[in-house]
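Following up on my earlier thread - several people asked me to post the actual chain instead of describing it. Fair enough. Here it is, all 642 residues.
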Amino acid sequence: MEKETKADKYPLLSHIDSPADLRKLSVEQLPQVCSELRSFLINSLSSHPGHFASSMGAVELTVALHYVFNTPYDRIVWDVGHQAYGHKILTGRRDKFDTNRTFGGLAPFPSPKESEYDTFTAGHASNSISAALGMTVASALQNETPRRNVVAVIGDASISGGLAFEGLNNAANANSNLLIILNDNDMSIDRNVGSLNSYLAHLTTSKTYNTLRYKFANFMRRHHLVTDKGKGMITRFNNSLKSLITKEQNIFEGLNIRYFGPFDGHDLKTVINVLNEIKDFSGPRILHLRTVKGKGYAPAEQNPAAWHAPGKFDVSTGKIIKDSAKKAPKYQDVFGETLVSLAERNPKIVGVTAAMSSGTSMIKLQNAFPERTFDVGISEGHAVTFAGGLAKEGMKPFVAIYSSFLQRAYSHIIHDVAIEGLPVTFCLDRAGIVGEDGATHHGVFDIAYLRSIPGMTVAAPRSLDMLRNLMVTAEKFNGPFAIRYPRGNGDKDISEEMHELPVGKGELLSDGKDLVVLTLGPVASDAAKAIDKAREELGISIAHFDMIFVKPMDASILQRIAEMNVPVITVEDGVIDGGMGSAVMEGLAGLGSKVPVHRLGVPDRFIPHGSPAQLKNLCGFDADGIFTTISKVANKEKDNSK
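Reply from S.P.:
Thanks for posting it. Predicted structure:
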């Protein structure tokens, strides 16, 4: 099979193996590079799925950055990384791009372990400004010459995050030459929300004003007519005068960050010219570019949310190819539908999410009860504290946030919910190994970080029915309650009416006397397969309990294990250290039991990207891994009994 980069299909792109090759081209050739890059993305991602629309919208920006700046000496820090596929292709990874997001292949987001052009870990939103500011200050402290330019590329959704504002505030006061590029496409994954988005949509700066400002700044600098201290005073005076004349206050210039724009982010020559003009300016600057998410592929432009990560699609028709196999519903869909059902009978129920209405299926509640649904944007900490305020005044908030993103709100969970024991239900979508998005998105830490919080209840359903039952239980519970559930489909469809579960009680799934297996969540089905195989092939009698609750843990199950005095295997889709298995060991130690406990789960390292099946096998807690552990434990017991 011929490579997609053959010269007749991509005559320029096929010869670009690094940004140095790109910089050998004339400016007049660059629009063709952009065209070929978009064609390459379309052809590759149609059969090797990934984040599509964001990278399509950032093509001109990507080409301009690598054309103007001397990368990798100059640093480009990408926020999140959804928009960085073009960057990967231009930085020596073109011919490996079809391995993107696959086990052993290219990482899903920029990764310094993969390329020197990937300057900082990307995956979670809003960190680029802070990281880039640190880099530019470090460069200045080390007196690096020639001057190292550092550029943070952040989207209009990410810049609304609290961390981004903290970085902006620090950048305004630090002695740095940071350049921030705001890639404004009016989208995150879903349509942006909040007043900052509305502000950006109406923010304008006169082209004539910018031109005069460039010339004046260059004149003052060339003739050494202004010091760094004086520059700050002039900037503040300039901003005040401009606000007085235009009756408009620019939020960035209000922070003493020089603002340029907005410019058309798809006008390549203009973007290159502006970058060349401002790249050597001193002090923090922000360049505001307006772009179109999905640019260059009509279906994606028309419905950018659906084309954020569409999966496989037919290039000619624009039809997204769906898996035709009949499957049980997805956990997130059952969550959304159940929340609507609960809200129909309980007017105090409200929904809160952080820029993930579609991903969490909170959009189902939004469609049914828009006045009781709140998408607060990429602001997980605010989402939690906001929910605490709602609960304090008598509402019953359900907060749906991806497990890995809730990490950003840990202090808020403790300070603004748990200390007061407020009845906030945390619905942790994408808990456990999530697959192709890799280490930044695996939701494997939540059991460990939540079970240490006083008064927190932590549970995990093994089935779609149990998810519904746990939501009913949480609705009636008077205190903080966390429900973790995985990405993807359940094993079987819903088959029973919702009912409340006893808090802190597990369930015996199968009885036995030689060994005990304890599971939490959907891994119960993998364990059941391994147990059946062990019974048939090894003749072992195994008791299998679904713990359901990791906090409070079922004391009666622990007491029974202590009395049985047989080995225990714990299985969980989360980190071993501090997880459910650790809680079992602590509980048994409290009973004075010395039964051996063998813990299966995610080991003490960051797990790469790949399919969930591949990664569970890698970690040793799929059905085969559980069976292997059962065999080893059984053989060890036989040896000890001799």
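The two ends are 60 Å apart (CA to CA). That should answer part of your original question.
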